[in-house]
Specification:
Layout lengths: L4 H16 L7 E3 L7 E2 L6 E10 L11 H17 L4 E11 L5 H17 L3 E9 L5 E10 L15 E5 L4 H16 L12 H8 L5 H9 L6 E5 L3 H12 L2 E5 L7 H9 L4 H7 L5 E6 L4 H6 L5 E8 L5 E4 L5 E3 L12
Parallel strand pairs: 4-5, 9-12
Antiparallel strand pairs: 1-2, 3-6, 4-6, 7-10, 7-11, 8-10, 9-11, 12-13
The structure holds adenosine-5'-diphosphate and magnesium ion.
Adenosine-5'-diphosphate binds next to helix 1, strand 4 and strand 5.
């Protein structure tokens, strides 16, 4: 009986993964097991493709992120990019680099989280690659989705006087991370249990984000195609600046309109941190940020659906990209989202 990764080897592991995968989409013709997966796009539709690389120690910390959650999140963040195009995800491929400190049970945990997310969002895992690694766990996921050509939403379609909207609430995942980091520091070397009571919401937002399929389905239901859209992975400021530069526009965002959950506020207060800064410059919220025409706004109000908030408007780029604070002052939006290669 082979129970270790060493005994199983690469092909044994791939077979094991293959056995745990069920294919469900009509567009998936061939999954794991050949040189390529084979996908038959629905006629008349466009395919969208996105890929993401996650490195242990850079993007995740296994001291507080359970492998099942990590697997779930790794898939979820890719699906979030697909939904941000107003598309529906259909297939993913998963490549892993695994160092000797991981055993078979760890890989099983990781894949159980990935497959749970796939199942929940109707996605087939159709392939990948497997390698040993010298530097912990590396995960690269590619996601493929589809969308009718007239419904694709890019970042560059925002126009003057349109309304800026965001789903859900912001800053929670960042405050969840701050809480986890604090407990990690406090508990170093002690065997006390961490204090997480009352903070489930922000922990869940950090450890198990959900991509906003419900928002994309709601937009479809009320017949609204946003003029621009992206997901919020690096904080509201940075994403808003992306939409403005791609669209060659300016904007005004009202601080008081930015949705922030009370648990996020409580945590921020406890840590002496501004909840608005968490929303503007934190990250990993995986909400959708989009712009709509003024005449579409009433459609949101007349149909019940997910929480969507109007937080500002698009203006001419000469007017700048600015935040209007609760006290009425204006300041430039600054991107302080996560930057590769900087060591801050
Ligand atoms: P190749 O030598 O062409 O890279 P592999 O032996 O790596 O082929 O892969 C064989 C099959 O197993 C392919 O269908 C590939 O997509 C799939 N596969 C390999 N590694 C993984 C993985 N970690 N997760 C899912 N599928 C995988
Ligand atoms: Mg290979």
């Amino acid at each position: 009986m082979a129970d270790s990764l060493q005994d199983l080897g690469e092909f044994g592991l791939i077979n094991r993964i293959k056995e745990s995968v069920k294919l469900t989409n009509a567009t998936t013709i061939k999954g794991i097991g050949d040189d390529c997966a084979v996908i038959a796009p629905t006629p008349g539709m466009r395919q969208v493709v996105t890929t993401d690389l996650l490195l242990e120690g850079i993007h995740f910390d296994l001291t507080y992120c359970p492998l099942k959650h990590l697997g779930y999140k790794a898939v979820a963040v890719n699906l979030s990019d697909i939904y941000a195009m107003n598309a529906t995800p259909k297939q993913i491929t998963v490549s892993i680099g695994v160092s000797a400190k991981f055993d078979l049970a760890a890989i099983d945990e990781l894949y159980s989280g990935m497959l749970l997310c796939c199942e929940r969002y109707g996605v087939d895992l159709v392939g990948g690659d497997t390698s040993s690694s010298l530097t912990g766990l590396n995960i690269s996921i590619t996601a493929i989705g589809e969308v009718a050509p007239e419904k694709i939403v890019y970042r560059n379609g925002a126009k003057e006087n349109e309304i800026v909207c965001v789903s859900g609430d912001l800053g929670a995942a960042y405050m969840g991370l701050q809480l986890l980091e604090r407990e990690k520091r406090v508990l170093k070397g002690s065997n006390q249990r961490p204090e997480f009571d009352g903070y489930d919401y922000i922990l869940e937002r950090q450890l198990k984000p959900e991509p906003r399929r419900d928002v994309v389905e709601f937009l479809d239901k009320i017949g609204v195609v946003p003029t621009s859209m992206m997901d919020v992975s690096d904080g509201l400021s940075s994403e808003m600046l992306h939409i403005c530069s791609a669209s060659d526009m300016g904007c005004r965002i009202y601080e008081e309109k930015i949705p922030i959950d009370h648990v996020t506020r409580n945590m921020a207060e406890e840590l002496n941190f501004s909840p608005v800064v968490a929303a503007l410059n934190g990250g990993e919220d995986y909400e959708l940020l989009f712009t709509i025409r003024q005449e579409d706004y009433q459609k949101f109000q007349s149909t019940p659906g997910p929480n969507i908030f109007a937080i500002g408007y698009i203006c001419n780029k000469d007017k700048g990209r600015r935040l209007i604070t609760t006290s009425g002052d204006e300041s430039d939006l600054v991107a302080q989202g996560w930057k590769a290669w900087s060591n801050k």
